[in-house]
């Protein structure tokens, strides 16, 4: 992709479309066995009677669109939601802790758009802070609890829930609701915005000196586990979730080039799911320790993000940048 450190483009403050989007949307947390209730106890959003099986046969669109921003999609990560569709095409995959100690993904697309992405689930308050690093991004999500939606509607982003853009979402037939909501990215963006939209602060290039051999790394949340195993033949880390190899619906193994374990403050928010579980808030502004995995080695790093509108820098103890390998990046927010 040829990306290097980028400065944030001038943010726009265009007003968001005001819409009442809090009715009958699937959001929140499900049980680890995949049979849990829909988010906030609400019924899944109807999608005009359309239901089909996700299709990954079409190659992702890679044409750039000058001045456009990224597409961020909230991805369901309950066991019943796997395998995922389109996550292998994301430039960045963030993982965050949600209610009950489970996890959820946010896939960020800039250099290419897959034909289909999903399953799509609900947004969290932490997403708003994380997305401020981008210039008016499009956030695709199934919904959110009623008290959170006003904050989302006021945020400097283009919020896209089912029913807002005709034909953007559909229900798949291979999984039960609420784990079967899928997005057609082309209905929200005419083309991939390009690498310049990735105003993350990340730098790409040669690995820093030093590092320790680390060919297998496991990251644990209270009720979810991720493992990353280095494959020298693929020059990538093979992802497993809860002890099972992570593949797409097309059978492709999820395999990022760089994995970042970022230690952050995770605190209680003012929000709860319908069962009364508190929604964790992941603080991504500040500084702290991180571990960067690339090339079968682990590098200790310091992360820093001064303001919500800034990207995040990763540096060595000497202050030199910790470059990432070219390719997909996974960032896992873990409690410090």
Automatic annotation (TrEMBL):
Q: Which InterPro entries match?
A: DUF3048_C, DUF3048_N, YerB-like_sf
Query: What are the residue boundaries of the DUF3048 domain, all occurrences included?
Result: 64-193, 218-331
Q: Where is the composition biased (Basic and acidic residues)?
A: 39-55
The source's superkingdom equals: Bacteria
Kindly name one Pfam family recorded for this protein. Answer: DUF3048_C
Q: Which residues form the signal peptide?
A: 1-26
- The molecule here is called DUF3048 domain-containing protein
Which species does the entry assign this protein to? Streptomyces aquilus
């Amino acid at each position: 992709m040829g990306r290097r450190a980028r400065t944030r483009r001038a943010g726009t403050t265009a007003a968001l479309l005001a819409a009442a989007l809090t009715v009958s949307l699937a959001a929140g947390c499900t049980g680890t066995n995949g049979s849990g209730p829909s988010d906030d106890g609400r019924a899944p959003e109807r999608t005009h009677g359309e239901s089909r099986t996700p299709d990954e046969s079409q190659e992702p669109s890679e044409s750039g669109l000058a001045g456009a921003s990224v597409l961020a999609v909230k991805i369901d990560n309950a066991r019943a939601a796997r395998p995922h569709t389109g996550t292998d095409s994301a430039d960045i995959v963030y993982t965050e802790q949600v209610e009950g100690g489970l996890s959820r993904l946010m896939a960020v697309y800039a250099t290419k758009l897959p034909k289909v992405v999903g399953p799509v689930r609900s947004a969290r308050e932490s997403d708003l802070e994380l997305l401020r690093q981008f210039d008016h991004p499009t956030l695709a999500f199934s919904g959110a609890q009623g008290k959170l939606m006003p904050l989302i509607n006021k945020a400097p982003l283009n919020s896209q829930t089912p029913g807002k853009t005709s034909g953007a979402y559909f229900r798949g037939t291979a999984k039960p609701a609420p784990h079967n909501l899928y997005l057609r990215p082309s209905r929200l963006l005419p083309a991939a915005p390009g690498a310049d939209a990735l105003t993350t602060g990340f730098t790409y290039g040669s690995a820093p000196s030093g590092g320790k051999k680390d060919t297998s790394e496991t990251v644990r949340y209270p009720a979810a586990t991720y493992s990353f195993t280095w494959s020298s033949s693929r020059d990538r880390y093979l992802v497993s979730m809860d002890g099972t190899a992570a593949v797409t619906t097309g059978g492709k193994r999820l395999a990022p080039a760089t994995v970042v374990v970022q230690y952050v403050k995770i605190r209680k928010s003012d929000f709860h799911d319908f069962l009364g579980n508190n929604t964790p808030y992941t603080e991504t502004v500040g500084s702290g320790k991180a571990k960067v995995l690339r090339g079968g080695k682990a590098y200790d790093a310091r992360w820093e993000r001064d303001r919500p509108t800034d990207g995040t820098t990763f540096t060595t103890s000497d202050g030199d940048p910790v470059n990432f390998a070219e390719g997909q990046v996974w960032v896992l927010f873990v409690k410090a």
